[in-house]
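Lesson 9: reading folded outputs for more than one chain in a single document. The general rule is that every protein is listed as its sequence immediately followed by its structure tokens, and records are never interleaved. Here is the first one.
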Amino acid sequence: AHHPKFLTGFIKHIEHEYKLRSDLLLIDAMFHAAGLLQRSPLTMSDVDVTPLQLLAVAKAVRSKWKEIGLYLGFDLEELAEYEEKRVKLSDRLLDIFHAWTQREERATVGKLLEACTKASAGTAAQNAIEGADDRKSAKELRC
């Protein structure tokens, strides 16, 4: 595909950094780069995170529970309490996610992915969210 010069570098950056998987998201990114959209309905980062997404992410990135907790704003003392309460790593992370959604004004997919990315678990978290969304969509279609 041939893109205007001013978009080419931005598109390469987006494709590399975020591994966009659909043409719709690529088109959305192009419109953002061109300043043609204020806020896109296709952008997940500003969407409130769902319990199904949190469950999927907790299972996918459980080994990074402590780092993710730190990046979500919990201190080491709070994390030690979660460690004492729960043996399973995914349960610890679910408890952290629950507390985070309670204390955060808006717990969004973007904020969750940012914390996971900083903890070197961004790709796994993104894949888990996409999988959770795919399962939800399939379930809605069956109803």
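And here is the second record, again sequence then tokens.
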Amino acid sequence: MHVGHLRSTIIGDTLANLLEFTGHDVLRLNHVGDWGTQFGMLVEHLRDEYPEALEKDRDDVDLGDLVLLYKAAKKRFDDDDEFKVRAREGVVKLQAGDKEALAAWEALCAASRVEYQKIYDILNIRNLNERGESYYNPYLSGVIEDFENLGIATESNGATAVFLEGVSLSTT
């Protein structure tokens, strides 16, 4: 973990402290990146290297150094086209609620929380309510349906997308 992972938490904590000091009630929501390709990559790496992490009722799986785990998974993703396909399919499985993928994801998130809590303790960051990207997954289908009903959703590269008039996004 590097400061880039902590930046928004540190800024948010500073603002929350200031607002609380001036008498405001503050809800300390911490938005974390806990969904997406990197997790598909990690889940598939766990499937190969730590299959016990895919067992739902296990909470004693030692994943070791998460940075080393991520680096190993990333190297495989960059070097192995078959693994890259599996990782991308793994994201779809995860977001669809696949039990094994969810168990591995939960183990990764739990191990991550232990590590970043150590840093939060040093920085005296308290009372955070975690709200990861995954929190919004149950709401996504309704949003997509609304966009389709409004006629603004379109298929793009196998995904449902909404393109805003006058906004051009480069993919490079």
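What the second record shows: The helical segments are 3-21, 37-49, 66-79, 81-96, 99-123, 137-150.
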